[in-house]
Amino acid sequence: MPLYENQELKIYNSLSGEKETFKSLTDGYVGMYVCGPTVYSNVHLGNCRTFISFDLVFRYLKHLGYKVRYVRNITDAGHLENDAETGEDRIAKKARLEEIEPMEVVQKYTVDFHNILNKFNNLPPSIEPTATGHIVEQIEIIKEIIDNGFGYEANGSVYFDVLKYNESNHYGILSGRKLEDMIANTRELTAQDDKRNPQDFALWKKAEPQHIMRWPSPWSDGFPGWHLECTVMSSKYLGNEFDIHGGGMDLKFPHHECEIAQGQAANGKNPVNYWMHANMLTLNGKKMAKSTGNNILPNDLFSGNNDVLTKAYSPSIARFFMLQANYRSILDFSDEALTAAEKGFHKLMDAVALIPKLNTESSSSVNIAEWKKKCYDAMNDDFNSPVLIANLFEAVKMINAVEAGKASITSADAKELEETLHAFIFDVLGLEAATALENNQDSERLANVVELLIQLRAKARANRDFATGDKIRDELAANGIQLKDSKEGTTFSL
């Protein structure tokens, strides 16, 4: 019997503002959609926290025995500046600045995104569709919205008629806003003259002559509005109604609000049963921002190559730290907090390694069944990872007490304890064992040393000291490290 049949999972639903008992639309199956990245720059830690939060959800649902279809998109058509409806496409702008093709930008930062999440030990989604791969479907749903009376064309662009929609639905149902208040607080912009109302949002935008990324449509050569792709891809792979939709708190309005409106307007159905939103990260008590320098990229965190923190922290330590706060709460990155997480992590791993060495007895003075129930109760309470972790440290106390001879445990209870710890630490929380971490760290250290030797060799050769350059190359080769020189520079392989 799958675990979900005797576990009552409650999820905080942003739509109702309450924790609700989770019941999937189809017994034993879960459809989950999470808004993915816009791939025009390196993924930042705030994004990573969101994806780690939903990786936890994915892992726990799988642990409970659900068959989960997890869909997470890649936005490769580019949002406009500040997610507005005028200005320059973010991907096209990056391509212009780097003097490369837009799809080179997309490829470069998609690879970066995958590499970083892999370092954090995130499981890949079941399906990872792209916006550019679903232009046809986006055009078709626009036609449906127009046919149903909720969209209109103006000078080659198509807009969603929010006032018309609000006559029969509630635009603002997710964010708790009222349309009349939005109207009262809106100043119409000259760039939005094509709209009937300032609140209307773009379903399709006619491309300006300089706009690189464009596609033909019945209305103009242009590109879809950025709210549309998620409606199209979620409905294509999960149906017009599905279980869970997740994303960052910043997407609740207008992005997710518009998704609800588009779904209702296209097929008359509320698309999502449970809306989940992960909160933001701060750094040293302040909002992360590139403009102020209060910002750190994941690789800079792992290498220690930054001006914000005093040392390097491994991906699993950073992941463990993030999971020590509930996904709905603001979390602050700081040296003190990460150092404490690092100590706690190693304490936890040491205790797990100690279990097989414990002396077992004929009776237990520790209540493993009660402790195990507390672990499930924590996760069933809206994926409450900090309470789960607190319970894992209760297990650490039990293990240490048994090891010190202050408590007793039977072999059956020791086995149950070990299996449960492994399930929650490695399968649900997605942490990696310390040995794997150390290997990764050793590899990174080796790579840094080799890169330094490559730089010294390049300097020697530039000074025509070929003997030193050759010696560095030969010594590395003798230790199994091959250098390869090319026009782009020198690389190495082990």
Describe the structure.
- There is one protein chain.
- By secondary structure, the protein is an alpha/beta fold.
- The chain folds into 3 domains: 3-278, 3-Layer(aba) Sandwich (Rossmann fold); 282-428, Isoleucyl-tRNA Synthetase, Domain 1, CATH 1.10.730; 437-493, no CATH class.
- 46% of the residues lie in helices and 14% in strands.
- It has 16 helices and 15 strands.
- It has helices at residues 45-63, 90-98, 102-119, 135-147, 162-168, 179-184, 228-238, 252-267, 298-303, 315-323, 335-354, 368-380, 385-403, 411-428, 434-462, 466-478, and strands spanning 10-13, 18-21, 29-34, 67-72, 151-154, 157-160, 201-206, 222-224, 242-248, 272-278, 281-283, 286-287, 331-333, 482-486, 489-493.
- It has a 4-stranded parallel sheet with strand order 4-3-9-10, sandwiched between helices.
- Helix 4 (135-147) crosses helix 7 (228-238), helix 4 (135-147) crosses helix 8 and helix 12 (368-380) runs antiparallel to helix 13 (385-403).
- The longest helix is centred in the C-terminal third of the chain and has 29 residues, at 434-462.
- It is flat, with a radius of gyration of 26 Å.
- The model has no long low-confidence stretch (mean pLDDT 91).
